[in-house]
Every structure is written in structure tokens, then in C-alpha cells.
Amino acid sequence: MKKNALYAAALMTLLATSVAAQGLKPGFDKEEYIECLCMTSHMDSLSVDRKYLSPEPKRFHKKYVARKTGFDNAWELWQDGDGVCAILLRATVSTMRSWGANFNAGMVRAVGTCHVGADKAYDLCADSSACVHSGWVAGLMTMADDIKSKIDSCYKSGCRDFIVAGHSQGGALSYLTTAMLRRMQAKGEMPSDIRFKTYASAAPKPGDYLFAMNYEAMTQGGWSITVVNADDWVPETPLSVQRPTDFRPTNPFANMDELTGDLGVMQKARINFLYNRLNKPTDKSVGNLTKYLGDVVGEMLEEANEWYARPRYADCANYARCGQYYILMPDAEYYAKHPHKAADAFEHHQYISYYELAQKIKE
Q1: Each residue's pLDDT tens digit, 337-354
Q2: Helix, strand or coil, per DSSP, at residue 95
Q3: What is the structure's pLDDT at 15?
Q4: What residues contact 179, with CB distance under 8 A and at least 6 apart?
Q5: Is the pLDDT of residue 275 over 90?
Q6: How buried is residue 78: exposed, middle or buried, by Cβ count under 10 Å (0-12/13-18/19+)?
Q7: Would you tell me which of 41, 82, 182, 291 could form a disulfide with 54, CB atoms 3.0–4.6 Å apart?
């Protein structure tokens, strides 16, 4: 009996080790990323020219296709043979609503309420003064309840590992989705033993510097990877303006009177003059970006979509890149196939461009 008990204990240890080995691991994984790229590519197979798509995915299989919501937003649930689930956020599609969400780049607070048919509360950051992209927040909140419901179902069936992934607008949404889910875990609203790993491919900037710092803190250690083709301009967007008032509160520019307090009248006047010459144009730029990409675009979306109401925009345009970056560097062979062409602004942003560069990675 004692020998049998030892055998049983050894078998249980072996099984536990085997299950653990199958789970997600932190850090960039070439094959894992390529599989995510292939899955997200084929979400768009009806709206993207097939020559721009990646091949079919090999490891994961489609389990659920959500209905289209919001600004033509959509997501899908896929799963592999080891029980790892993938939450995939769709990229921009060729409709005014989808592009309108991109251009609705006035910022809103990362904790707040948006109106998408009904008032929806959201929490994307431990620091409520952080800011995020308003159009993408609204899109996410039209999908959020469905995503959370499917995660709950998968959890009950034994799934503990989830990949969150998207390309382009889908990449930006993958940041915000991950932030939402991790904040739910932090508040005890979602099981703490779920592991989320994020691949944001070709993603634009989702929020301000403060949001980026908080996001990277809650995913640090290799749990959120941003993959970027070095020649792709989309990750450089939206337009960003940083002002002295966007710095952390202890910065010396927050109170110029205190900074120049010991100087003479003429010296103080000169420094204040120079400071205002530098600061006022950036203030004006932030005001213009908030007005045109917030209020003007928001009003157009509001008029075209009766379920949507413009939010109150934050006085911020300090967009920052986000996540742990993995850079795909083009070479001569890539440029021979994908040259710079003014007529095709998205040549270096396509799924196939990312796929071909990812295939060259030597691990």
C-alpha cells in the first residue's frame, strides 16, 4: 500500500508538472505571435484583400464569433488543444464608423463612464487621472460584457490561460481590454489565477504617458508584447503633444514663481517670457487636437449613431507608446518585395508584411 501511495504521489506530481508546462509563459514567443497574427488576419478575411492576409492559423481553432457592435467593432474567441483561449479584437474595417472611432482621438479619463446605448462605467487604470483614447474606449465598452461573460464560461470549463491579441486598431483595443481585465482582477471581480498575455501588433498609442506607465507596471515581466514593423507609421499615431503640465507633480516647471523666486525682477521676467513662448504654443496645440479630434469628430459620430453620446474630454494629448516592444527590422529582401510607395500608405502595416518579417526571426 505504501509503495502504491508513493507511485500515486509521483504520478500526480508528473501530471501537475505537465499541465504547468503547457501554460502561457512570459516574453515574446515567435510561434505564438505568428499564430496570433494569423488568427487576427483571418478575422478580417472578408474586408481585406486576400493578398494582404497571413496564412491560416495552425494551433488555434475558432470557438465563438461575436456580433458586430459599436463602431463596427467585433471580437472572436479561439482555443487550442491545451485549453489556452485567445480573445481577438478586430482591426479597423472600411466603414466610416470604424475610421471615425480612430479619429475620435480626444482623450478621456481612464476611469469613468461612457454612453454607448446606456451609461457604461469603466476602469482601465489604478490612477484615475490617466487618460485614454475616447473612440476606442467606447468601442471596447460595446463588447466588454460579452467578453467578460465568455471568460467566465471558459473559466468554469477549466481554462486559466488567455491570450489577448489584435492588429492595428485591434492592437490598441487589446491594450484597453487587458487593462480592463487586470483591473477587475485587482478589485476581486475576476479570478486571480487567470493568466492574461497580450500581443498588440502594429498598435497605435492607446493613452497618455501615465496610462502607459501603469499599464506596463501591471503587465511587466513579459506579459504584454507590442510588435512593430520599424517602417510602419501607424504605431506613431495618434498625434502627441507634451506640455510641462503633463509632467509628474514634482517637476520644477509646475510652479515657475517658486522656481524663479530668488532671481531679480529682470531675470525672472526674461525666464517667464521664454517659458511662455515655449508653453503657449503647446497649450494651443492640445486645445486644437481636443477640439477637432474630440468635439468635432465626436459630434459627427453622435449625429450618425443615435446610441452614442460624446464624453467630456480631458485636457490632454500626451499620447505615449505602450507595452514591451519587439521590433521587426526590414532588410533588403523585405524592401525588394515591399518598397516604399506613396500610393500605398499601408504597405508596411499589412498582416503579410508583419508575417514575413516575423518568419525571419532567429530564436
Answers
A1: 999 886 789 999 999 999
A2: coil
A3: 38
A4: 110, 124, 125, 211, 215, 218
A5: no
A6: buried
A7: 41
- Residues in a beta bridge with 85: 79, 162
Question: Angle 201-179-292 (CA atoms, 0-180°, nearest 5)?
Answer: 75
Cα–Cα nearest to 83, from 61, 108, 53: 61
SS (H, E, C) 236-300: HCCCCECCHHHCCCCCCCCCHHHHCCCCCHHHHHHHHHHHHHHHHHHHHHHHHHHHHHHHHHHHH
C-alpha of 208 from chain center: 12
CB contact at 8 A, 276 and 260: no
In the predicted structure, residue 234 carries a pLDDT above the cut 90: yes
In the chain, what is the greatest distance between 2 CA atoms, to the nearest angstrom? 94
% of the chain residues with pLDDT over 70: 87
pLDDT at position 47: 61
Closest CA to 106 of 269, 298, 333: 298
Please give the torsion angle defined by the CA atoms of residues 199, 202, 204 and 210, in that order, rounded to the nearest 10 degrees. Answer: 40
Amino acid at 206: P
SS3 category, 188? coil
